[in-house]
Specification:
This protein has 215 residues and is an alpha/beta fold. The protein has nine helices and six strands; from the N terminus they run βαααααβαβαβαββα. The model has no long low-confidence stretch (mean pLDDT 94).
Length: 215
Amino acid sequence: LQAVFLDMDGTLIESEGLWNDSEAELVAELGGVWTEEDHRRNVGNAAEPVGRYIIELTGAHHLTPRQVADRLYARFRTKLAEGAEVRPGALELVRALADSPVPVVLVTSTERSLIETSLKRIGLHLFDDSVAGDEVAANKPHPDPYRRAARRLGVDPARCVAIEDSVVGVTSAADAGCVTIAVPNHVSVPPREGVVFRDSLVGMDLDWLESLIVA
């Protein structure tokens, strides 16, 4: 095992509900209605693709995807003032990895400006590196975020474990060649060859992660 890559929203922190509330409020302001199905379709996506979706949903073509994304981020940042709730087992896993010789890297679709606030209850300082959504050529579900994380460490993706909660994230990690663990949260993740499924992060430790790497 050469590294462990961790997604943030929905995997380490319970922020998807905050995103949903922010999206619903913005869509209502623009004259539309945001449903659970709309949220499900956008779980794990970066802000600008969500912005494009909202423009098509509401007909707000006077705005650019970036402008919608900025409005969405402003609402989300307000809701995140105290940091998001931590998912069960997340803090224990991150601390165990931080105390180990194996590098742990945050790989998130969220833009850099929100990461530290989002992780206030865990601490970004526990990670050896982090890759944000606005620092990659193509965001999840493209494999670039995980390839970039591996490249910066100088490691082989096939000897890295990635932990994700959404279809978008699992696709990104698995297509990058990482050993991928799916811990579905707000949306179901269909079976995929080579992807390991867990109900939660509780009890996950370094020895088990190491056992997933094929010799």
